[in-house]
Amino acid sequence: MNRFKLPRKTKKFLKKGMWLYPPDENGNSLMARPATSEEDYRALKKGILRNLFERRSKADRKEFRQKLDAEVIVSDEILQSYVDDIIRKDLRQSSYDLLKRAKNSKKAVIAYYNFVNAYRLLESGEESYGNICCMAIDRANELLRSKNK
């Protein structure tokens, strides 16, 4: 049986990314390792795989940040419905309380804006923003715990 071999630079490039197959009907994506698996490498060559850490230009990153950092305030009831929709049942109340605290904090308000804007983009059909909602909650937790220097 022949071993799967790639040129060193190609293999190094493929190891740097996180490669995913297209999402299924539930929105779950399978992870691929094209640097070590011949089947995954063939899928990459056919254009089936996508890189999660795709490099973007500086203008694209700036536009992305402007979308997420736009100042938007929603009522507590609407925020509760957003959290109920995206967070699993056992973490809902703590996430909601955390976002309410972030809304009133000067340091963590950006994480609150990120959550609300990411959820609105998720509602409009952009499927990849669900993870950003969860990361915004984690970021709010970090910012609220950190001390001012």
Shape, per Cα inertia axes: elongated
Radius of gyration: 19 Å
- Which class do the helix and strand fractions yield? mainly alpha
> What strand order characterises the main sheet?
2-1-3
How many E strands? 3
**What is the count of helical runs?**
7
Unreliable stretches (pLDDT < 50, length at least 5) are: none
Largest sheet: 3 strands, antiparallel
Mean pLDDT: 87
Helix and strand pattern: HEEHEHHHHH
Q: What proportion strand?
A: under 5%
Helix content estimate: 55-70%
Could you write a compact summary of the structure shown?
The protein has helices at residues 8-16, 38-46, 58-69, 76-86, 92-103, 109-123, 130-145; strands spanning 19-20, 31-32, 50-51.
Descriptive notes:
The protein is mainly alpha-helical and 149 residues long. It contains 7 helices and 3 strands, in the order H-E-E-H-E-H-H-H-H-H. A 3-stranded antiparallel beta sheet has the order 2-1-3, with no helix packed on it. Helix 5 (92-103) packs across helix 6 and helix 5 (92-103) crosses helix 7. The chain is elongated, with a radius of gyration of 19 Å. The N and C termini lie far apart (59 Å).
